[in-house]
Amino acid sequence: MGQLFDLPTGVAVPVEGTLDVFPVRRIFCVGRNYEKHAAEMGGEVDREAPWYFTKSAAHAVLSGQTVPFPQGTSNYHHEMELAVYLGADAFEVSADAAGSAILGYSCALDMTRRDRQQDGKDHRRPWDLGKDVENGAVLAPLSRGFSVAPDVRIHLEVNGEVRQDATLSELVWSVEEVVSHLSHFYRLGAGDVILTGTPAGVGPVVAGDVITGGIDGLAPIELTLVDPAE
Ligand code: MN
Question: Which end of the chain is more exposed for a tag (fewer CB within 10 A), N or C?
Fold first, then answer.
């Protein structure tokens, strides 16, 4: 009895200032966690509870990569996000207890086929084609020393032009509230990553664009898109 074929090993995110890496198990994403972004999408934030979609860990790439522009879209969008990395079990935890499961943070991109996401909304179908895009979850090196504070700036540029610029004060649901809430649906644990939503200013990118972004106190993120024919 043998394994029929080999699979590539998953993405492992470098831990800043160490030789360690964080192997990614699952990627959860929070929807509409910044009010102005919810508004630009034609919706409102949900004050009752956060809500989620997922991205395959197999579709994650590290910051600094050059990747092909994905097929099946003519409206591929950038979303700059704060990613939270779990290093310990969190199952049905309170927000107060959630912090002890958090190992660190990084910059992340939630790349989105906005046209396919809109199709899903229009036809009341799932968002997979819009959100679970190959190379569509981009992760920068994680920091273990970072702490979320209201005045921390989060920003994104396309070819050097600022597109998204906000502070973490705009987060509707805190990181601890998200971990707590999500832990009532999943047995969260080491290897899980949560992208906490994007501020306003999302917009399209095309082949040839260089996306850069940053969050004060974290390693910056970069992604270059190229024509798949190149
Ligand atoms: Mn997002």
Answer: N
